[in-house]
């Protein structure tokens, strides 16, 4: 039995008015003022909306095996708080400008070398840290970037460029388009450009996923990006961002994955490369346990739970 194609959504939590209050606080008092309100909001959701806190429990039970109910509650509150800070930081970058957030990049020269190969470059990230703040630090590539992104109906969260009143700096490819946007992604790489995708959530059909080990259990992760790499020869750069201070992030080139030409379309052939990504993501969660924001059960078919 396979998992449903999509067991998660990215719709915003809170009303348009509530979001507007945070935005106003950032304008008036900056990041710190928004953080103060955030603590009260997290307390409200943790105590009176336990359904939201529990969305993180499948991950937290894996990350902290053997944790008691009280410990899971504490871990869940910390996860919500860190997630809230990331959302505030995303707005801060757009409202006050990227200069108010220090982003350190580890692996800049390696990324330039990969792009210089002329076969395009696939950036695979995950829902960790503040990926939008980190992406704003990639201007040095001086190459068009296309982003595979699905925006939910009813999502009122603003991206950082929307706060600044600018056009999106990336070309958005909708996975709900023709053939899941695969032809558009292939064209990006053929032009030697950059394609950015998320490796920890499945977009579209479950046929595009393969099962690999992640945090001690079988999880379903997408393999389409690795298939594109095999077709085009494009290298894959695994990039993770982590909040390292009140106003600082680190963007790390965690791994370089090269996929050889593979005959056939079976996901099993790409499983070893997906597993490399999963291992890198697991290492990230060991180092930053409260910065993995995938609020759904990735292990829902694990019969050992």
From TrEMBL:
Chain segments annotated as transmembrane: 20-47
Domain of life: Bacteria
InterPro entries noted in UniProt: LipA_acyltrans (IPR004960)
Gene Ontology MF terms: acyltransferase activity
GO biological process, one term: glycolipid biosynthetic process
Keyword terms: Acyltransferase, Cell inner membrane, Cell membrane, Membrane, Transferase, Transmembrane, Transmembrane helix
Keyword Cell cycle: no
Protein name (database record): Lysophospholipid acyltransferase family protein
Lineage: Bacteria, Pseudomonadati, Thermodesulfobacteriota, Desulfuromonadia, Desulfuromonadales
